[in-house]
User: Fold these one by one.
Assistant:
Number 1:
Amino acid sequence: MIGMIGQWLWWDRLWLPGNVTWADLKDEEGRIYARVSHLYVIVPYALVFLLVRYLFERIIATPLAASFGVSEKTSYKVEHNAVLEHYFITKSKNPRQADIDGLCKKCSWSSRQVERWFRRRRNQDRPSVLKKFREVSWRLVFYLGAFTGGIIALYDKPWFYNLREVWIGYPKQSMLESQYWYYIVEMSFYLSLVLRITFDVKRKDFKEQIIHHWATLTLLAFSWCANYIRVGTLVMLIHDSSDILLESAKIFNYAKWERTCNGIFVVFAAIFIVTRLIIFPFWIIHCTWVYPPEYYPPFFGYYFFNFMLVILLMLHMFWAYLILRMVKMFLFGSLTKDERSDNEEDEAEDGETSVTEDNDRHVKVTNGCGGGGANHH
């Protein structure tokens, strides 16, 4: 049974054009081809990434945060109340007024006391700015290193300048050592993000993040096995380029360097639109959709790879919509909070609440003036 599944899974027609079989891709005459067995190392490397990240966040990111004036905020522990805690865990973190009235009777508390308890209880579960700063610093270091490595690996390759070169000789294209390490490092990093995603700061686009990470891993793994390595490296390079600015904007946002954050955000928004909504669909997807039939008959892998690219494009469009909406509010001075972030609620003297701006993906404006931050990925 397992053997039959393996035969179907690795059937030549799923992964290779009709005129090529796995037997044609044997390592010989100095040629080395990508194998699925090469990808097994991403599991231990992902664990290494987690260890390195742990050390980085404590040895480097924490002192760096302190130099920016970011520190651990002392959280207020709410008074234990069994009735309210049970409602908070089992029903809702944001009770309606009718429910608040009912809880008031059960606890013999005033409406204001119940509202304050829920507000403080929500804040108690929210991640600190220091935790966010550590995560962002780690991703910034990785994306900066990955983008630099990608440029070094691609700058002297003909397909970096002429996309038709991507398909010259396909699928009999020997794997380069630089391509191998570019793939392994990127896939190990994204796998480490998947392993940590339940422990990291959760955003309102948590589901989109999971889809993005798994789509990226699936796309990279399939492109590796189908020898779509050349175009795969181009896809990775495009994504890393804007992520550097994104994480930089978040760092300055947490440090409350508002003007610096705003400036980086504007540049980030422009590069995001150019790379994700112009270069990605009109250069990369055009390259993978239009050019291949000129060199070989379409097969399952051809359609599947393009399908995965379209999923990424849809995620880009979703995030671009949020970014452009933030830019619009920023330009007209009407943005008061990051609609994506789970912002902390402050206690005010009169019992009302305001929103603390420690956002991640977009821009914030305080009292109608500059102050921003961005997050995406």
Number 2:
Amino acid sequence: MGKLVALTLLGLGLAVIAERFLTLREKVNASREVEPVEPGHCHLIEGIETGSEDIDILPSGLAFISSGLKYPGMPSLAPDEPGNIFLMNLNEQNPRAQALKISDGFDKASFNPHGISTFIDKAQTVHLYVVNHPHMESTVEIFKFEEQPPSLVHLKTIKHEGLKSLNDIVVVGPEQFYTTRDHYFTNFLSIFEMLLDLRWTYVLFYSPQEVKIVARGFGSANGITVSQDNQYVYVADVTAKNIHVLKRGDNWKLTHQKVIQLDTLVDNLTVDPDTGDILAGCHPNGMKLLFYNPQDPPGSEVLRIQNVLSENPRVSTVYANNGSVLQASTVAAVSHGKLLIGTIFHRALYCELEASSD
């Protein structure tokens, strides 16, 4: 009798696992392919070979690019090399990427940069905030940018017991920022988060005075940014394939306004400074990312979301590639007719945009 019960329970367990796996395949668009879309003249950026996970462009046209991310479950083309921050001046005729020198006193050997965000203070000093994963932990590093010669001066490392499994960051004041937690568990149990569709991740607010959760209910809270007027925060939920629009309130609270549902796995978000549109770096087929095969690589996709606050936002494809040129796109950012597209572990793309016919 006991043996029969054990076999029955085993069979039920296997059936549940099979059902969850089929659900997962559907969730990550395991069968999806994309048709190529190119917005203008595009070419790969020389010198960026091991990822360009996040990009932030200053109003002046200077672009910061985080590179070399080592992330659990993701490929890395240089697993033993530390990460870098690259700089590009998009005002130049032929912009080139240069790795920024980082000041002494900072542990450059364990630098593992993820999401980034810039902040310009009242003295017009540029600060770069970087989500860092030294030894697979989570910290936030604050750097001051020096223009001549271009370099980063490390100012501070922020550590806190509440800052775990961080992904992206958006700075909203001096040492004040929102950041996303992309996994609730920080060990092998994170696999079950995806299989069971647990929505336990969230958005945190940090200041030197407090650290608190300000928005909950995400499957995997990922990219985060703010609207042009700073009244709304946009958060990508990569496993739910959507973007949450949250309104900023008193005491840094975020209130849910709407969800923009998409048919792709949304990673990082930026805002077009000229239009207020959201640009989303996306993974069209998550299965190819989870089970990486260089002979059949994950593709890239960039979406533009117009009229974000309206009842029917307009979604259009800015860029799409099946992986033959660009693998596993994470972010897209624009400035004065120039477009940069970044990836988790692969290259980075520079495009000169064609004039819109709209």
Number 3:
Amino acid sequence: MSRPAGNPSYAAELGAAKKAVALAARLCQTVQQEIVQSDIQSKADKTPVTVADYGSQVLVSLVLNMEVTSGSFSMVAEEDSEDLRKDGAEEILERITDLVNKTLAEDGSYNILLSKEAILSAIDTGKSEGGPSGRHWVLDPIDGTKGFVRGGQYAIALALLDEGRVVLGVLGCPNLPFTSVSNLSGSSSGDQTGALFSAAIGCGAEVQSLDGSPPQKISVCTIDNPANASFFESYEGAHSMRDFTGSVAEKLGVQAPPVRIDSQAKYGALARGDGAIYWRFPHEGYRETIWDHAAGSIVVTEAGGVVKDASGNDLDFSKGRYLVRDTGIIATNKQLMPSVLKCVQEAIKEKKQASSPL
């Protein structure tokens, strides 16, 4: 795949992105270890949001602004400061400020102390709308917040769009086993957890431990028989149509039970060959945001995989904050994609026929 003209390398941006995500992951680990009910708010859509979501967004914004100096800064991110500016939010804002400053002090890379107003301003750097022109960072400060609150899998997911195309991605997965996922809870028998996945267009994908081990090249599995394949799907039943995915798995002849884990950690696990397929078919009317898939999709494609929608089209990240796609998202290797697409399209047709009036 060719790089956008005039951009021979994204090495500096990738280095900054990895640094930003690793620092945000450190804050998230601290919060998850000490989580208490007062750290959780409820946004308008009732999903839980923690001090870690906000703190993660602040740190990523700060590091990118300090490390990537070329051009104007634009970031499309999940959080904004509106709820934190309301009456009654003083305590949570103070906690976020303390956490961010403590994380920065422990890291030692930047000799700065942020005020509450600087924290709010940093959160609001994520208000960009993205689009087909220019460069835009795309951030989910905690992808899989429910998993985070539950003590399960989550990811800090950061990508860069250049002229509407994803050109690099980093996934910080603090609870993902470093070697491989081996069971339904997303854990393994090994002791080491914490994986940092990264990819830049045309350069392949890598994984390293969050504490800084040398990066290792990764690639998707080479399974070509669906009967030998396993698949990832969302941990939360409300996030996907499990009856539908069960039907697709049956058509394919998949023997293994689904591996259900939260967040874009699924993309990382797929990219290093832990499983063969990841699919996501949300309920009708659900709008996917670009930050839920941008980083994960490039990690998989640079690891030799393919990511398509249910019609076999590439995902389009150039239309603003929402992702243009048909019905669902499928990620797998090149050998399996044709048969997976065929079974998905058959299952969609049957579902429509079953729901249409006689």
